[in-house]
Write a structure and sequence with these properties.
By secondary structure, the chain is α+β, with helices and mostly antiparallel strands. It has a single domain, classed as Alpha-Beta Plaits (2-Layer Sandwich). 38% of the residues lie in helices and 31% in strands. The chain has a 4-stranded antiparallel sheet. Strand 2 and strand 3 form a beta hairpin. The longest helix has 18 residues. It is globular, with a radius of gyration of 15 Å. It comes from Caballeronia glathei.
C-alpha cells in the first residue's frame, strides 16, 4: 500500500470554496474512478490556516497513475473545476508526497 498526502495551499479567503468543491463535486469523481480517500483535514494550528490536507490510498504507483490520469482527463471534471474558479483561482499551489508504511505501522 502507498499513501499519497496532498496539501492544497489556498489563496486567502478561498478555503471555503475548495471545501465546497470537494464535498459537492470532487468526491463524486473520486468515487467514479475508484479513488479511495483516507481522510481530509484543515490546519487548526500551523503556519497557515488556508490549507486542506488529504490522504489517498493506492495499491501501487501504477494504480495511482491510471486512476488519477483518468480523473484529471475527465471533461466533466475539467468543466466543473473551471466553473468553480470562474470568480478567481482557489489553489495557489499543491504539494504531493507518496508515503509507504514501515513494518510497525498500524496502517499497512
Amino acid at each position: 500500500m502507498i499513501v499519497e498526502m496532498r496539501i492544497y495551499h489556498c489563496a486567502p479567503t478561498r478555503l471555503p470554496a475548495l471545501l465546497d468543491r470537494f464535498s459537492n463535486t470532487t468526491l463524486g469523481f473520486f468515487e467514479k474512478y475508484g479513488i479511495e480517500q483516507i481522510g481530509f483535514w484543515t490546519t487548526l494550528v500551523g503556519p497557515s490556516n488556508h490549507a486542506l490536507t488529504y490522504m489517498l490510498k493506492w495499491e501501487s504507483l501504477a494504480e495511482r497513475e491510471q486512476k488519477w490520469n483518468a480523473f484529471q482527463a475527465d471533461a466533466d471534471w475539467i468543466a466543473k473545476r473551471a466553473a468553480s474558479e470562474a470568480e478567481r483561482p482557489i489553489v495557489e499551489r499543491i504539494e504531493s508526497h507518496f508515503l509507504t508504511p514501515v513494518a510497525f505501522s498500524a496502517l499497512r
